[in-house]
Amino acid sequence: MINPKRYYLDTFSVAEESLAEALKQALSGGGSYADLYFEYTTYGSLSLRDGAVTSGGKHTDYGVGVRVLDGEKTGYAYCESVTPRDILSSAKAASNIVSGGHSGSVEVPATGTIRAGRLFRGEPNPAADRYPVQTSWRDVSMDRHLPLLLSLEEKVRARRNDVVKVLASLSFSVSDILMYNSLGELKYDTRPMGTVSVTVICSRNGIAENKTVSKSFRTGVELLREELIDKLAEEVTSGIDQRFEAVRPKGGTMSVVMGAGASGILLHEAIGHAFEADFIRKGQSIFTGRLGQRVCSESISVVDDGTIRGCRGSLNFDDEGVPAQKTYMVEHGILTSFLHDRISAAHFDTAPTGNGRRESFRYAPIPRMRTTYMESADAAPGDIIASVGKGIYVDEFSNGQVKIGEGDFTFFVKSGFLIEDGHLTRPIKDINIIGNGPEALSDIRAVGNDLKVDEGAWTCGKEQSVPVSCGIPTVLVGKLTVGGE
After folding, report:
1. Distance of alpha carbon 257 from its chain centroid, rounded?
2. Confidence (pLDDT) at 107
3. C-alpha to C-alpha distance for 318 and 468, rounded to whole angstroms
4. Separation CA 415–CA 210 (nearest Å)
5. 244, 210 in Cβ contact below 8 A?
6. Over the range 150-165, which residues count as b (16 or more CB within 10 Å of their CB) and which as e?
7. Nearest to 95 by CA among 156, 43, 27, 157
8. φ, ψ of residue 243 in degrees (nearest 5)
9. What pLDDT shows up at residue 483?
């Protein structure tokens, strides 16, 4: 949602002249660039267990962060107040950090300075808003949401007779953001987020199985439709019978088919982080120095996209005021771009890609993903499975670990199937998949025509936590290590 500029200036009780004065103070000790990041966020949550409210409420977060860049050095300070005195004090603190406490003129190294390049001076355009809101979460009392969560539990219980516990929750946030920098760029928007999740625990013959499903979008209260509740109830109760029947397969090296949608988390973790340009700039990524090289089959294109309307990972602008965009990291098998914030873009003398993100005003931005996915190719999912003599099909992951420098990864698989003679046979669970990101990327034998961007509440932790989305079509990896019996 994009309100008029006056709304944001009034929200933070600032004038454009005072913003310029704060940046003048921030650069008083030297530096090539400075910016201000104002945030006012309302958070809300409501949780039920077996029809009883276990927690709920609203709270707010409010403040401003000031950043100063001088070559490879960053000075950052924040305050939980936006009075002129406190803003200037934070600006001075950031200046002192980057200059070592010295005031006056400081020579700025040429390498690593922020180059103006293309400026993004234009005012935000409400017609191009990627997350319009009909009804703000701020305008509806918490008790209005209770019937919906109760309905969700009822529909879950109605679908199965072995349910022993249902946990349902709603969480939301609304963030007013105002950014201003020493290039003269002023950006602002209001970012909504709504998430509904449900967990079901079923019991059979003394054995319990559970499943969790969530839906999360950048939208307002209009998210809470009966269709959403029906979809959550259906998805969380499907596949439970297979989990009771699932076995741990014999381990070894074998072909792995990754199902469309949530399997994209493996793409995000095992490959996506290695394309973030701070790792490239520091020489810590396995893809360092490989720009322009072939890294996989020409049938593969990998995208990080901030422009999908209403998507959890989308933005109008990143947290440095750079317009979000669709960035091809791999295009037809060629590594074509890394994911840049302003610092890495300056280092590589290229344009930022709109990937500078931060958890809140308390943090400086760093390169982060938004919605990361592999584009569809032309293989039918059924044909991909049919091509595998022996392997596994997996569709739900958790607890992944990745070494960025080496590219090695391990993921815990919660559900899937054995593939025997081209058919899905016995359900499997509780196994690990082990491999190397670049090797797995280059060993993809087939890409399906069924790209699905998952709608779950994915959150990425890399020093800070930010909301993201991920997706993938059905994909066949020729050889991965499966840890089983």
Report:
1. 24
2. 36
3. 13
4. 11
5. no
6. eebbebbbeeeeebee
7. 27
8. -70, -35
9. 87
Which two three-digit tokens encode residue 83? 């009075």
Model confidence pLDDT, tens digit, residues 106-153:
333 333 455 544 567 778 989 899 998 999 999 999 999 999 999 999
Q: What is the pLDDT of residue 112?
A: 43
Ramachandran angles phi, psi of 239, nearest 5°: 85, -5
Per DSSP, the three-state class of 97 is helix
Q: What is the largest CA-CA distance in the chain?
A: 76
pLDDT, tens digit, for every residue of 302-349? 999 999 999 999 999 999 999 999 999 999 999 999 999 999 999 999
pTM exceeds cut of 0.85: yes
Q: The tokens of 232 are what?
A: 């959550």
Which residues in 28-54 are b (16+ Cβ under 10 Å) and which e? Answer: bbbbbbbbbbbbbbbbbbbbbeeeeee
Find where tokens 């922020």 sit.
114
Question: What's at 146, amino acid-wise?
Answer: L
Structure tokens at 107: 């020579």
Assign 129 to helix, strand or coil. Answer: coil
Q: Which residues pair with 212 in a beta bridge?
A: 199
